[in-house]
Amino acid sequence: MKTLLASLCAAHLFAATMLHAQQATGIPAINSQAPFLAAALSEFFSDTRAFTAGVELALPAKDGGESLKLPFGVAMADGKMRWELNLANVKSAELPPTAITGMKDMGLDRMVFIYLPGKPLTLALPGMKSYVEMAVPKTEGVQQQAQEKIGRLEKKELGRENIAGQPTVKYSVKIPGDDGTATVWQATNLQNLPVKIVITKDKQTYQLQLSNVRLGQPDAAYFAVPAGFAKQTDLSAVIQAAAMKSFSAGVGGLK
Predict the structure, then answer these.
(1) What's the pTM value of the predicted model, to 2 decimals?
(2) Distance, CA of 144 to chain centre
(3) Do residues 69 and 58 touch, judged by C-beta distance below 8 A?
(4) Complete domains list, the chain, with CATH
(5) What is the pLDDT of residues 40-74, one digit of tens each?
(6) d(C-alpha 139, C-alpha 192), whole Å
(7) Is there a contact between 166 and 192 (Cβ–Cβ < 8 Å)?
(8) CB-CB neighbours of 69 under 10 Å
(9) DSSP H helices in the chain
(10) CB burial string 217-252: b at 16+ within 10 A, e below
(11) Which bin fits 11, alpha (ψ -120 to 50), beta or left (φ > 0)?
């Protein structure tokens, strides 16, 4: 699981597809910090927890502007993961309503990522009723660096706080020799699941916060592609089909 995490934190999956419409401005910085991000988030991705929740991931914006906020639905169980993003809920000054409308017209406004251990990552697009299987990206050196950092994590209790109505124990997380810092709030009545994580690295701040957490096995259907979805050869084929769909709809609407 933590090998996968190192790749996910490189932002090739959750942020890259959506940020493509914005020239992927945040990707280089995230890539360079991926090993530390993976280590700091490692406790969140535990094979021992099964739950569903809402997640808001705040990523630093370019030029010190307002952070990009990505709200996801998440389900995890037995090493399986599902993340669902609806662009209509994204908060970013760099993503104007016209861009969201364009993505919706193409059927690309909703994205569902499904990961099953030992299998390729699946990206399903409900608006296109299509899906594509993608190899989990492996940024050179990221995974090994992340594993090394995870092995050296140091935690120190800072006190107790309520986060969104949940009693938590607050910890500082530090990796010796690394200038990055993280603060983790673990909910005591949710199997110590981290419900908030704030990470600072190279003067950039990342935040992940959970809401509406429900412990227990998610519906098995969460981890399967819905019936009737067509498999596409690659992501380029999906985007091309989406563009043709949008173009055809526009032509059909001409008077």
Answers:
(1) 0.75
(2) 21
(3) yes
(4) 2-247 (2.50.20.10)
(5) 666 666 667 899 999 888 877 666 666 778 888 99
(6) 30
(7) no
(8) 15
(9) 2-8, 16-19, 27-41, 97-105, 142-151, 235-252
(10) ebeeebbebeeebeebeeeeebbebbeebbeeeeee
(11) left
